[in-house]
Amino acid sequence: MKKSFVVARLLLLTFGLLLLSGVDAAEKKHKIALSFSSSDLSVEKRIFTNLENIVHYYGKDNLQIEVVAYGPGLQLVTKKSSFPEEMKTWLKEPYVRFSACGNTMNTIEKATGKRPVLIDGVVEVEGGILRLIDLQEEGYVYLTP
């Protein structure tokens, strides 16, 4: 009799824990770091397709996304972007952040004498790769388009 009581309590406890873990999973924020280092227009366009697909699947309330642009991919987040309207749209979303590599910007400025001008809302970070490392250490999933 005592054995049945203990087994029943263990089953209830296990069921309760499973229910609680389901609630946590539903409320979990998915943290995604998108690395971008290409000047290829089709790859640039893919960034926006990736963002749309991620939002469609997880929903806006469950996301924190950072797109980190560096090297040849820096153009995506500058005033010379081939996708200014898409950038403006995504920069309005509170769960999306765009970062620009300061090292790449310094290199371009040294080579051309002109510092790239970022789209309003894009944040300059010290280094794109360094930012990606920091994000991964904060639990972000690392993706490339």
What topology emerges from the helices and strands here?
Layout: H1 2-27, E1 30-36, H2 41-58, E2 63-69, H3 84-91, E3 96-101, H4 102-112, E4 123-125, H5 128-137, E5 141-143
Parallel strand pairs: 1-2, 1-5, 2-3, 3-4
Give an account of the 3D structure.
With 145 residues, the protein is α/β, with parallel strands linked by helices. The protein has one domain: 3-Layer(aba) Sandwich (Hypothetical Protein Ychn, Chain: A), CATH 3.40.1260.10. It is 50% helix and 18% strand. The protein is built from five helices and five strands; from the N terminus they run αβαβαβαβαβ. It has helices at 2-27, 41-58, 84-91, 102-112, 128-137, and strands spanning 30-36, 63-69, 96-101, 123-125, 141-143. The protein has a five-stranded parallel beta sheet, with helices on both faces. The protein is globular. Residues 5-25 have low confidence and may be disordered.
Decide which structural class fits the backbone.
alpha/beta
User: What is the CATH superfamily label?
Assistant: DsrEFH-like
End-to-end C-alpha gap: 60 Å
**Main sheet: strands, sense, barrel:** 5 strands, parallel
